């Protein structure tokens, strides 16, 4: 899990390794759907987890209650299997727009427009000033 996912799930980043979760400092979530799925999975794991207190005589805030500790059993098998929700798309006919779409050209133009945005804005502003002066 990433640090920002743990923080979004309201788990302190120093507590995360102590409850059996590996922390990767490099952020990986690029979409909100995967981020929400990871947060939901982490919260579900945390809700099922039974934390035993270090000292039985003095349990701390995040530790499980005495009843939960008595009910605890060792889990054998996969803890929480990851279910991928992959939806296969139906086969369909390619439309004319899709046939005529030039991916490289559109990406090339998008990069050029992003790179030259300031120059284009400056030229448009100068052209507007010249139009006002001519009138």
From TrEMBL:
<dbReference type="GO" id="GO:0003735">
    <property type="term" value="F:structural constituent of ribosome"/>
</dbReference>
<dbReference type="Pfam" id="PF01294">
    <property type="entry name" value="Ribosomal_L13e"/>
</dbReference>
<keyword id="KW-0689">Ribosomal protein</keyword>
<protein>
    <recommendedName>
        <fullName>Large ribosomal subunit protein eL13</fullName>
    </recommendedName>
</protein>
<dbReference type="InterPro" id="IPR001380">
    <property type="entry name" value="Ribosomal_eL13"/>
</dbReference>
<dbReference type="GO" id="GO:0003723">
    <property type="term" value="F:RNA binding"/>
</dbReference>
<dbReference type="GO" id="GO:0006412">
    <property type="term" value="P:translation"/>
</dbReference>
<keyword id="KW-0687">Ribonucleoprotein</keyword>
<comment type="similarity">
    <text>Belongs to the eukaryotic ribosomal protein eL13 family.</text>
</comment>
<dbReference type="GO" id="GO:0022625">
    <property type="term" value="C:cytosolic large ribosomal subunit"/>
</dbReference>
């Amino acid at each position: 899990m990433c640090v920002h996912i743990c923080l979004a799930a309201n788990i302190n980043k120093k507590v995360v390794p102590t409850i059996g979760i590996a922390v990767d400092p490099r952020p990986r979530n690029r979409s909100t759907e995967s981020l929400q799925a990871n947060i939901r999975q982490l919260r579900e794991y945390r809700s099922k987890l039974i934390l035993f207190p270090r000292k039985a005589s003095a349990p701390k805030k995040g530790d499980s209650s005495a009843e939960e500790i008595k009910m605890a059993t060792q889990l054998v098998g996969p803890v929480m299997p990851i279910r991928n929700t992959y939806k296969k798309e139906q086969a369909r006919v390619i439309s004319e727009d899709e046939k005529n779409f030039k991916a490289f050209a559109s990406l090339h133009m998008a990069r050029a427009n992003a790179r030259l945005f300031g120059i284009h804005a400056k030229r448009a502003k100068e052209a507007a000033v010249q139009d006002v002066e001519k009138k």
